[in-house]
Amino acid sequence: MVDEPPSKLEFTAVRKQLGQRTVLDNLSLVVPAWGGMALVGESGSGKSTLLSLALGLLEPDAGHVTVFGERLSAASARALRQRIGYALQETGLFPHLSVLDNLTLQGRLLGNDADELTSRALLLAEQMHLDSEMLNRYPVELSGGQQQRAGICRAMMLAPELLLLDEPFSGLDVVTRSDIYDHFIALANDRQCSFLLVTHDLNEARRLCATVAVLRDGEIVDHGPTERVINDPQHAYVARLVDAQRLHIAHG
Amino acid sequence: MLTSLASLTLSDCISLMAKRLTIALALAMLPLTVAMAETVGVGSKNFPESYLLAEIAAQWLEADGHRVERRFGFGGTQLVYGALTGGDVDIYPEYSGTITRTILNDPSIDGNESKLTSELDKRRLAFIGRLGFNNTYAVAVRRQQAAERGWRDISDLDGAGGIELAFSHEFMQRDDGWPGLAARYGLTQIARGIEHGLAYRALANGDIDGTDAYSTDGDIERFDLLLLGDSANYFPRYDAGWLIRDDLPEAIRQRLGELAGTLSDDTMRALNARVVVDGLSFPAAASEFLASRGVSNTNTAGDSTAIVLGPLIVRHIQLTLVAIVAATIAGFALALAVHRSARWSGIALYIAGLIQTVPSIALLALMIPLLGIGFIPALTALFLYALLPVLRATLTALGAIAPVYRRVAAAMGMSARQEFVHVLLPLALPHALAGIRTASIICIGTATLAAFIGAGGLGEPIVTGLALSDTRMILSGAIPAAILAMGTDLGFDLLERRIIAPHMRVGR
Fold first, then answer.
1. Model pTM score
2. CA–CA distance, B217 with B252 (Å, rounded to integer)
3. Over the stretch B2-18, which tens digit does the pLDDT of each residue have?
4. Bridge partner residues of B225 (DSSP)
5. Residue A88 phi, psi (nearest 5)
6. Minimal CA–CA distance to B254: which of B92, B131, B93, B128?
7. Which residues from chain A sit within 8 angstroms of residue B501, using beta carbons?
8. B412 has a chain A CB within 8 A of its CB
């Protein structure tokens, strides 16, 4: 039997307190080495905090985070972040830069070849159904959905092995979304990329992720293969989500 | 990780700022120190007789082979006195009454020559070479109105209704000024302050009905004014002479002493009138007088009141540019250092705001005991003035940056420096630029006041013109200053169009 490849992102007994509130408590989670894990949970359940910890933007009060097999610390965080792709719902595209400059900024700061970065940006834009003409515009001149696709492109620019995604697909219309999913999965598989996807959409989780972790009040309350979590919810919150999205009917 | 951003960028900014300031300081100090080493600094206040006497002293000394630096037009006794004690000026024309009352603050010294000498000695100063005339204060009224209402003496104003009295700001404050005068003569009118340079014109126009005048003032005849008698002998003697530092070389003292007793009240008034009525320049009027003392006027400077604007404009731009660059760097550094803390932001804004509530002329005056006169103190005052708009705009701009951009910048693995250059600076720039623009306009205007403390610039013709009631001269400083301000505003507009994308511009 071949050894499992090592996980690129692990949380080990992590506790995080923000002010008086314990946001995460003794949380352990291993994100699979390949493919995606969906992170599902109500607002305030600690999802964003978890992503901040993975990026080293916050430090855990107890426990530790391991990225690419290396323990995350104040000293190692910056170098590790440069190997992580990050996309989020509100995109965070810099308003003073054209979309192309937004896409190439990180690569330029790392000293990559500008022409290569530009052709990579053009390729990604095409796969994400973004007119190449859009690249020369400012983010403010794009629609919300176009901005989100640009944000995903930016996260994929340096072909990261680990992606942290905070509902980056939520503003896309249904038709484009399906196509974007296909391209996204192709790109992710191409790089044997591991990704953690925060989402409320169980259809999206089913489409993109082999496993799901359910977070509630700072603890993982369910964790397993996507189909099992959806068809046999271990927790009332997931059951309500499944009901609300009529997944068991849609699935037959 | 996150806290290192502010400190890193701050230290960068401070070192840059320190470099710039050192250069500016070195540049500005150079001519000052070289000049002071071997020349005699002659100062004056900003009224015609003071200019004229200072110019007479300057030419008189030059005719004897001394090198003279003219530092004319200080905006009041405290300012020129500060320059004298600070060593920026060695000589200036002063009056005995001003010395006893304003400088020594002890009217009992009036007429007590040995006390006067010993008091000045304690301050390492001396009052020498009395010129012979007594330019005391007087109350001036329109000759016609005086005839109509039968005014001949200050006492005639007692109970005179429906008249508006306005006195120079200094006169309003002085112990021997309006409060004492009103008390002595039992005058009950309410008086207000007015810039002395504007008072005669206001009086002649009928806007006011009485003001303080100097008894040898050439303007008295020009505006057809009458000086009211002082039957109560309220005003002390104001014998003109030279107030000097006691380290002044003996040769210069002696040379000045030779002018003693050469100017009677009438001579002085006539000489003043040559300037304010006939339009002679101070140098021309001074050399006309000195010609009668056997000094040929071959070595006098310019012969008209024409002002060479070039150097004044250059100096004006120097002042504002250095102040703005320094305020921009300091404002940015300060804003970066404090913007994460609401408390410190508040404190920084409060202090900067407090500085700005100090009237600009007072701020300039405050600089004299600290930094002397000239370029550096004026620059410092302008810098302090410009700091608030820059700081406020930058703090607002930094505060308005959505946290998501900093989060993304950090997630990209940017260093503190990269985050500053590629995210914070460009996002804060539109507002910051608007602040720098405001600060620049304020600075160009305020820099005209720098002439009061001998820093030069376009304020010089304004100050001199005010002293002479010479509108043309005032405008020769005021118009270029206004054009400079408008040009700067336009320049910022073009700069904004060039470096800031349309959707990022402020107020669009």
1. 0.67
2. 28
3. 333 334 444 444 444 44
4. B142
5. -140, 160
6. B128
7. 96, 138
8. yes
